[in-house]
Amino acid sequence: MNAMKTTHKTYDFAYQFSLDGRVQSFLPGRYSIEIEEELSSGSEPLDFRQVKSRLYHTPNSGVRIEVGGIGIDPEDFDRAALQDGVRVLRDLHTEESVLRVSKFDRFAIERGENEGMSVTRREVEVAGSSVD
User: Fold this and answer.
1) Exposure pattern of 24-54 as b/e (b: 16+ CB <10 Å)?
2) Are 71 and 52 contacting, i.e. CB atoms less than 8 angstroms apart?
3) Can you give the pLDDT at residue 121?
4) C-alpha–C-alpha distance, residues 123 and 5, integer Å
5) H or E element at residue 10
6) How confident is the model at residue 72 (pLDDT cuts 50, 70, 90)?
7) pLDDT tens figures, 122-132
8) Long-range residue pairs from 38-44, CB within 8 A, at least 24 positions apart, any chain
9) Does residue 131 contact residue 100 with C-beta atoms inside 8 Å?
10) Helix, strand, or coil here: 3?
11) Residue 80, H or E segment
12) What is the pLDDT of residues 36-69, one digit of tens each?
């Protein structure tokens, strides 16, 4: 009997998403993928191949519901989660967040960028919250 391993990944989607090869879209919420892999016999170094994967949705009730069990590609799940994260970051960087930074701090940040200095998001948030 070959050795098996199971991997779980969970992500809270903020937006509707789709997976490659699927017509349906999935509503925002908590989804997890369960990936079963089997050790290929006689392979060195150890090499696992995917046997099957299942996609689950966990609604507010907390009970996992299987929503897809055939042909779910874990890389598609990762890609959808990454795209969702990018959309969330874009939403956080709206005009409102820029307006929370005082005129004085905004000038200092722009001046620093003009001098080739990079400013992190955290520094902008700290600068914006320190003046009010």
Assistant:
1) eebeeeebebbbebbeeeeeeeeebeeeebb
2) no
3) 53
4) 42
5) strand 4-13
6) confident
7) 555 555 544 44
8) 38/2, 38/3, 38/4, 39/2, 39/3, 39/4, 39/5, 40/2, 41/2
9) no
10) coil
11) helix 74-92
12) 888 877 656 778 887 888 899 988 878 888 886 6
Three-class SS of 32-79: EEEEEEEECCCCCCCCEEEEEEEEEEECCCCCCEEEECCCCCHHHHHH
Question: Tokens in use for 91?
Answer: 């939403």
- Return the structure tokens found at 20: 């490659």
Closest residue by Cα to residue 75 from 12, 21, 3: 21
For residue 129, the one-letter residue type is S
Report the DSSP beta bridge partners of residue 116.
Answer: none
- Token digits of residue 54: 């299942």
* Residue with tokens 């349906």, as numbered in its chain: 24
How many residues in the chain? 132
Which structure tokens are listed for 16?
């509707």
Q: How far apart (Å, rounded) are the C-alpha atoms in residues 20 and 82?
A: 14
- pTM beyond 0.85, yes or no: no
